[in-house]
Amino acid sequence: MRTAEAGEVLVECIRRAQKEAFRIVHFSIQVNHLHLIVEADDDVALASGMKGLGCRVARGLNRVWQRAGAVFAGRFHDRVLQSLRQVRNALRYVLNNYLKHRCSLTVNERGEQEPDIFSSGIYFDGWSNHPQEYEPGGPGEYVARGGWKISEGWKRRNALIALASVPGAA
After folding, report:
1. How many domains does the chain have?
2. Which of 17, 39, 100, 139 has the most CB atoms in a 10 Å sphere around its CB?
3. Which pLDDT belongs to residue 62?
4. 52 contact partners, CB below 8 Å, separation of at least 6
């Protein structure tokens, strides 16, 4: 799924899946799965939003791959993030997951590491070693702003996240 064509389809699916009661705040595209951080008003909104996203993704990727059938083998796994530390850890896990899977780094013309191009990391303002390059406070092109805990709260007690911070590493 980490190709330009599939990536464009997935980003458009994420953009279209945004609803008032279901918001995708961050994502990363891996070779054969997605990682998402979502906010939902309740269990019904979460289930409905994920079902809608899954249908969009299946239709879009099947069109790209010129095939039919299920794209994901199983159901989504969810975990409620209750503490600010859990939010920070989830952000690090989702936005830097490509490092865990040993995908190639994105570097700019100066040789500096950049956020993963197959993630919402370019719209993330919590990097410790990367300047924020978008309109402060504004949502990205395809991700929702998120509530206080995910947009601001986690920064109050925890260190910002390094671009090279591999999830699961000591």
Report:
1. 1
2. 17
3. 95
4. 17, 19, 22
Residue 168 domain-assigned (yes or no): no
Give CA–CA dist 101/96, Å, rounded: 9
DSSP SS3 for 161: strand
Look up the domain containing 153 and give its range.
4-157
How far apart (Å, rounded) are the C-alpha atoms in residues 56 and 14?
9
pTM: 0.88
Does residue 84 sit within a domain?
yes
Handedness of CA 151, 155, 159, 160 (dihedral sign): positive
E-strand spans in the chain? 22-29, 34-40, 106-107, 113-114
* Structure tokens, 68: 């039919």
- Give, in degrees to the nearest 5, the angle at Cα 101 between 129 and 154: 40
Do 99 and 35 contact (CB within 8 A), yes or no? no
Report if residue 75 sits inside a domain.
Answer: yes
Kindly state whether residue 147 falls inside one of the protein's structural domains.
yes
Question: Minimal CA–CA distance to 14: which of 53, 44, 55, 70?
Answer: 53
CA torsion, ordered 30, 28, 8, 124, to nearest 10 deg: -150
